[in-house]
Amino acid sequence: MQTNDLIQEARRQAEICNACRYCEGYCSVFPSMHAGRAFSDGDITQLANLCHNCRGCYYACQYTAPHAFDLNLPKALAEVRRDSWEVHAWPQPLARRFHTHGGAIALSLVVGFALILFALRALGGGNHGDGFYAALSHNAMVAIFLPAFVLPLVSLFIGLRHYWRTVGGEPIRLSHITAGFGMAARMKDLAAGHGDGCNFEDEDRFSHARRHVHQAIMYGFLLCFAATSAGTVMHYVFNMPAPYPLFSLPKVLGLSGGLLLTFGCGGMVMLKRKADRALGDPKAWGGEIGFILLLGFVGLSGLVLYALGATTWMPMMLALHLGAVLTFFLLTPFTKMAHGFYRLAALVRDAQRRSLR
Fold first, then answer.
1. Where are the membrane-spanning stretches (predicted)?
2. Which of 99, 53, 97, 59 is nearest to 76 (CA)?
3. Which of these three, 20, 51, 85, is where a domain ends?
């Protein structure tokens, strides 16, 4: 479907839901939906990015097929949500391509970057320090990864700015940011309004499993980022270059983050394989799995790299790990990772709506 068709179908279903109001307390979507009577394209985009696709509303709904209304709100919002990331992404064609060929693109880039990084070592990029720097120098890592970190941030900023205009966002206050981060940190919507969890992987059973693996992935990623940040501060501020001992701050943060990331991504793949694909966006499924596997491999390869740090296999594993990290950063604006940023923006916008009531 084209963008207009997706939004029109989501609008039709939202209008029926707005008249019924049975699911009013399920998640952030329904209070926001019930705050108005008519929905602009921006309103539908905002509702779609508030939705976490827990599917509780679908299984509770009396108007799903074979009823003539044929409601499937989780699917309708998932399609609008994916389309909104593609429309607002910059540059746009990369986003559309990843969601349809995500696994192949991620694998190709990881292998390609790993070969390039391994070749750099052979051309004299290594042997300039201890530990990993013996395989690839610190200067070479900085030259490669600094642009790979900054450019996606610029791309995300442009995309989120477009999104904020689309949903009618207003000037942001600190209270809005605090409320948005609080909702994101707790992932309250994945517990549903009754607090028993959601039905993502099983129609007949409430579960907090998806909430827990989401939190493992989020906090695992943040711990890994904190480990890199701690290492950067120790290197440049305190003149303490790597390698670091086991009980140093970068190692403790990195190992705990890598474990959470690995197990969280593994759990998410299992849950998505159990879940009914007809209640999500079928076009995005391959891209979502590809991204989860990529992020899980970043965590797993980091743990394996630590285990192989003193062996002859270390340079090859380092190239694979850094290739995965480089791929992850460069693809961030065009993968499911963008969901975290758009979801946070949607929660901040919803906090604005609630503050104006």
1. 102-120, 140-160, 216-238, 250-271, 291-308, 314-334
2. 53
3. 85
Same domain, 100 and 51: no
pTM across the whole model: 0.89
Torsion sign, CA atoms 186, 191, 196, 199: negative
Alpha-carbon gap, residue 286 to 103, rounded angstroms: 7
Q: What is the three-state SS of 145-199?
A: HHHHHHHHHHHHHHHHHHHHHHCCCCCCCHHHHHHHHHHHHHCHHHHCCCCCCEC
What are the pLDDT digits (tens) for 252-283? 999 999 999 999 999 999 999 999 999 999 88
**Distance set, CA 259 to CA 58, 217, 223, 255, 300 (Å):** 34, 10, 10, 6, 8
CB 209 within 8 A of CB 201: yes
Domain that holds residue 76: 3-85
Rounded distance between C-alpha atoms, residue 88 and residue 118, angstroms: 35
Query: In terms of domains, do 257 and 215 share one?
Result: yes
Show the CA angle centred on residue 332, arms to residues 346 and 298, nearest 5°: 125
What's the structural domain count of the chain? 2
- 178 and 40, same structural domain? no
